[in-house]
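Appendix B. Extra example for self-study. Work through it before the problem class; the solution is given directly after the inputs so you can check yourself.
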Amino acid sequence: MSVATQTMKKFVNVPEDVVKESLAGLAAAHADLLRVDFENQIVVRKDAPVAGKVGLISGGGSGHEPMHGGFVGRGMLDAACPGEIFTSPVPDQMLAATKAVDGGAGVLHIVKNYTGDVMNFKLAAELADDDGIKVESVLTNDDVAVEDSLWTAGRRGVGVTVILEKIAGAKAEAGGSLAEVSAVATRVNDRGRSFGVALTSCVTPAAGSPTFEIGADEMEFGVGIHGEPGRRREKLKPVSEIVVEMTEAIVSDLAPASGAKLLAFVNGLGGTPLIELYLVYNELAKQLADRGLTASRNLVGNYITSLEMAGVSITLVELDDELTALWDAPVHTPALRWGT
Amino acid sequence: MDAATLRGWLEGSAVSLHEQRDYLTQLDAAIGDADHGTNMDRGFASVVAKLEALDGSTPPGKVMVLAGSTLVSTVGGASGPLWGTALRRFGRSMGDGDTFDGAELALAFEAALDGVVELGAAQLGDKTMVDALEPAVRALRERVDGGASPEQAVSAAREAAESGMQATVPLQASKGRASYLGERSIGHQDPGATSTVFILRALEQAIAERP
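Solution. Structure tokens for the complete assembly:
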């Protein structure tokens, strides 16, 4: 039996204005950290460009808040380019952001591996190059639910993006060169893997109805962050069994060194309460211990979401001393803050 | 055929994509992320707004380059760069002439297809807009070379695009967001191939209705 798994009620004025009005709220709430350039639809760190510092920009469709606008600030992103809901931003936004944050040391574009994001950032990088700005791009593609083959667009960029933006941001803040920041970012992506599961669909404001129907006793296994269906649909199981499967999928693909120290990131997709996320973390900690792995750092909460989707993703990143120190470094953004 | 023919085409596309917005979004919801209709509607509405501000003597090539640039700047997603590149290449292929014939139209479409394939790296059978556009461009070329009128050639192109669109239903996607679904993408019509058909139908109408 298919049931309506969620309400279609939303706190909106008109669907077309959701992104702009949300950005206005972000600007009003965090005027000490950032400003919003409404003409170009970009979120920019208040003191950008920081002279001599590598600029970090990212962007993607909206609907994943706090990513990316909520990560703009000291020690993380210099600018974010929000597109329409689940739609990649356009090259004009990325070019404006690149110019706004270029402090003379070059700009790193952090791009999640989706066809649209990749194409638009590619066009933007070419335009920035025409303007004489040095740009490097790093791609996140950590979702092990997607078979990486000739027959797909490659793995999706999901949870690792958050970790990468924090760590690369710290490297840039510490004075790293564009090549060094880019290398650290690439290492985080190479050593990170994710897997997501959803219990309900999300509802885009424009569509007003769930992107997919799902039964009361079902879950989507291997979902992304855009309401696109997962790899397969299964009967709902106890969280302990779900986390075993998720951990197994990630660890077998990541193949961490024996006794490795990991950053364990349990992320809510927007509609799952924190109490359940801690149940997931509890099961994950047990699973890691069983495998002789240590979660030396963790992050639990809603950081890369899919509107109001009930669901969870797990991301594991294998840390080394430098990545750990960069994770611990001070950060001050709307969504992540410590050490300041 | 002249700039007015192409402006009629772009305006007709905008009307059709607006009418079909919810249908395209529903197709996208099944195998993608439910934004194709809204994105194409927003982009072509912006194109029409740009055309209104344009001097009536602007040559056909310039009209299409402007339309393409507008799509790149307003659509986002994958459709923005792909259709934007297609129309820009189409326009550049036309040069500065004030009119064009069937052969020039075929050349422009071939340039557009090359641009899409280059940027998207998709091939026939990947369950993308290429599955509609490539057969259409081939049919157009064959008919034009065979001496058909522009009306006949474009009708054949539209028919070929429709067959290509229907042929996407049993395919498993291997490009774009639908590819994440693996076998679950089978049994659904590709939204990008579908909007391509609407755009070709608008061209057929614009050419038939030209003075």
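Self-check: Residues 274-290 of chain A form the longest helix (17 residues). If your reasoning did not lead you there, revisit section 3.
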